[in-house]
Amino acid sequence: MFFGLVMFSGRTSTAGETVGEYIDDATVTTQVKEIIVKDPDAHYFKIEVTTTQGDVVLQGFVNSRDTEARLIAKTREIKGVKSVKSLLKLEEHK
Q1: H-assigned helices in 1-94
Q2: Which of 34, 53, 75, 76 has its CB surrounded by the most CB atoms within 10 Å?
């Protein structure tokens, strides 16, 4: 049993991350999604979150640059986040 645990913890994911790093990235992604859902403006929009080795990328749409700035600031406060890259676009109103 112990040998199996040691072997499992040393495995890497396809992105070259260790299992521990992958779990941490998944936790960060979940926390960022919680921020989006709880935000009074952002939860209406589809925003994709990807995290790789602590680097977070936000993609999708927001209703204002203030919303974008708020999401970025709150994401940076999450333990384990190294950087935040925003590819968020302003929703066009027709």
Answers
A1: 2-9, 19-38, 65-76
A2: 75
**Residues sharing a CB contact under 8 Å with residue 18, sequence separation 6 or more, in sequence order:** 9, 10, 11, 12
- The pTM score is 0.75
Parallel/antiparallel/unpaired status of strands 55-62 and 83-90? parallel
Residue 49 structural domain: 21-90
Q: Check residue 42 and report its DSSP letter.
A: G
Judge whether 58 lies within some domain.
yes
Residue linked to tokens 């299992």: 19
pLDDT tens for the chain, 94 residues: list them: 333 333 333 333 445 667 666 679 999 999 999 999 999 999 888 999 999 999 999 999 999 999 999 999 999 999 999 999 999 999 876 5
Whose CA is closest to 54, among 74, 15, 83, 32? 83
Lookup: tokens for 49: 């979150």
